[in-house]
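Narrative progress, year one. The postdoctoral researcher (J.K.) led the effort to move from monomer predictions toward full complexes, under supervision of the PI. The following entry was the first complex the group processed end to end, covering 573 residues in total.
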Amino acid sequence: MAGVWVFAENYDYCLELLQIGRSLADKTGVQLTAFACGDKGIGQQYIYYGADQVFILPPLAEDQPLGTYVPAIVEAARQEDPDIILCAATLRGKEIAARVAAGLNTGLCSECIALAINSDNKLEMKRVIYGGAAMQTLTCKTRPQMATIPPHTFTPVTELDDTRSGIIKEIGPISSTPVKVLAKKPRAKESGDITRSRVLVCVGRGVEKEGDLKLAGDLAETLGGDLACTRPIAEELHWMPQETYIGLSGQKVKPELYIGLGISGQIQHTTGIRDARVICSINKDEDAPIFKISDYGIVGDLYEVVPFLSQELARLKKK
Amino acid sequence: MLNIIACFKWVIDHEDIKINPETHELVLDRAGYRISDYDRFAIEEAVALTEQYGGSTTAVTVGLPAAKKSLKDALARGPEKAIFINDPAFHNLEPSQTAAILAQSISNQEYDLIICGEGSGDLYAQQVGPRLAEHLNIPCASFVRKITIEGRELIAERRVDEGIEVISMPLPALVTVLPEINSPRVPGLKDTLSAAKKPVVEITASDLGQTFASCLETVEIKATTMERNCEKFGAEKDELKRFIDVLCRAGVVD
Ligand SMILES: Cc1cc2nc3c(=O)[nH]c(=O)nc-3n(C[C@H](O)[C@H](O)[C@H](O)COP(=O)(O)OP(=O)(O)OC[C@H]3O[C@@H](n4cnc5c(N)ncnc54)[C@H](O)[C@@H]3O)c2cc1C
Ligand SMILES: Nc1ncnc2c1ncn2[C@@H]1O[C@H](COP(=O)(O)O)[C@@H](O)[C@H]1O
C-alpha cells in the first residue's frame, strides 16, 4: 500500500510522527502506515492512534542493533512504493534513514522542522543550514520523499479511538547483520530536562575550570533555574552531561530567561535559544557576536559580574 | 596494517556569511573556506589509528576545482596522500550525490576503514557516511566516540539516545565520529612544508564514467533572523543593579 510511512524507534516519537503523518495522508488522500518494532500490541495501539496499516518488524536478538531493520524497510518500500517516509531523528534513526534513502536511491531531508503539501501535491520540507544561519526549503524529485523529524517537533496524537481497525502485516524474517551489540550502557540520569526549564544559566568556554561551574550554579539556584552549556563544555571538556548542551546538535530550549556566561555566540549555539523570551549575556569582549542576539548584555568579566549578581539577587529575594 | 580513508569537506566559513537585510538572501561570494570543523576529528582519528596499529591514511574530498586549496591543510594533519575528486559541475552537491561520487571513486581502492565526520559544517545532513557505507555494502556505525581494532574486527562505542552502545563489526567498515573522540593536533610549520610534497590523485567527473543526478530541489534559501533589544550594560555596580532592575521589570526575575 502506497501512502505515508512512519518509523520511530520509540513509542512516544511514533505518536508524534502519527500526528503529522495523519495530516499529510489526509491532505493527499492516501493511507498511513506505521512500523512497529517487534511487538503486535504496540502495532494495534498505532492503529488506534490513527494508522491505517502497521508493519510488524520481527523482534531483534539481544546482540542485533536497530539498523538490522534497514534491508527489511528497503525491501518493503521497493514492493509497495510509498509516497513519503518519515523517520524520527534519533541518533540511530538518522543513520537508518540515510541508509534506507541510499538503498532506495532517493532524497532525504535531514532534521526537517516544518512540512507542508504544496500545490503539486508534493512534500515541501524546511531545514536549517549553515549552522542555523539560514533556512532551506526543499522538495524531493525522487520517490519516496523522505525526511527525518527531530523529536518534539510535533505534538503526539492524544486521541485514541479503539474502534479503529487496520491491517496488521508481519514483515520478515530478517537476516542478521555483521554489526553486533556487545554492551549497552544507559546513561545515568544526571540532569533534568533543560527543554522544560523556565530559567537557564548557560556556561561557555569563558569559564576557566571545572570548579568554577559553581559560580554559575549559584546564579542558577538564586534564579530558580537550571544549568546548561555550550557543546565544547560537554563534548570536549566533559564538565557537564551531553544532554545539557544547547544548539544545532544539542537541545533546542525555550526558557523565559537565558543568561549566557562566557559564550561567544556562534550560530550553532544560538540557533538553540531562538525561542527564549529574554536573552542575556555576559562576555568580556564587547564585540562578541552573542551581544547581537541578546536583549541585555553585560560587557565584563564573568568572575566579577556573576558573584555580584548572585549576591544582589539573593538580597532582593530576602526582602 | 590499516588502510584508512578519511573523508573531509571544504566548506564556507560560516562566520563570513553576510545577509542582505532587504531580501534576507545570503551573500556568500566574499566568504572564505575551511576544512569542515568536524572533519578534523575524522582525519585525526584516522592518523592516530594508523600510528597505533600501523598502516596509512588517505584523505579524500569531493568538490569544485577551487577546493584544491584544502589539500595542503588536510595533508598537514598527517595523512600520507590525498584523493581529490573535483569537477566544475560539483556545485552544491547534496548528500546523495556526494556519497555516490565517493563510492564510485573509492570502489577500486584498497581500504579497511572509512572515517567520516559526524556531519558537515554547512549542510550538517549527517547522511554522507551511512549512505556511502550502503553503496559500498559495508557495515557502518555512526556517532562513534571510541574505536579499538582487534584483528579484523572494529570495536566502537557509539552514542545512542539512551546512552552508549558498544558494537563490533568486521573490517572493512565505515564509522562517523564525534568531536569527543580525540583532540586534533595543530599542524606545525614542518607539517605544512612536508604536506606540499605528499602525493595527490586527481579524479574528475569524466573519469567516473557516469553522472550523478540530484534527488532534492531547493525551493528557497532564506536567512534566519533574530531580532533582539541589544542593550548593553557595563560591569560597574550601578550598571549591574540597573540590569537586575530591567530583568525584574521584564517579569523574568521575581
Ligand atoms: C556543525 C556544527 C555543529 C555545532 N553544534 C553546536 C551546538 O549544538 N552547540 C554549541 O554550543 N556549539 C556547537 N558547535 C560549536 C560552535 O560553533 C562553537 O564552537 C561553540 O558554541 C563555542 O562555544 P563557547 O561560546 O563556549 O566558546 P568560545 O567560542 O571559545 O567563546 C568563549 C567566550 O568567552 C569569553 N570569555 C572568556 N573569558 C571570559 C571572562 N572571564 N568573562 C566573560 N567572558 C569571557 C570570550 O570573550 C569568548 O567570547 C557546532 C559547530 C559545528 C561546526
Ligand atoms: N564533499 C565531500 N567530500 C568528502 N567527504 C564529504 C563531503 N561531504 C561530506 N563528506 C563527509 O561526510 C560527512 C557528513 O556530511 P553530511 O552528510 O553533509 O553532513 C562529513 O563529515 C564528511 O566526512
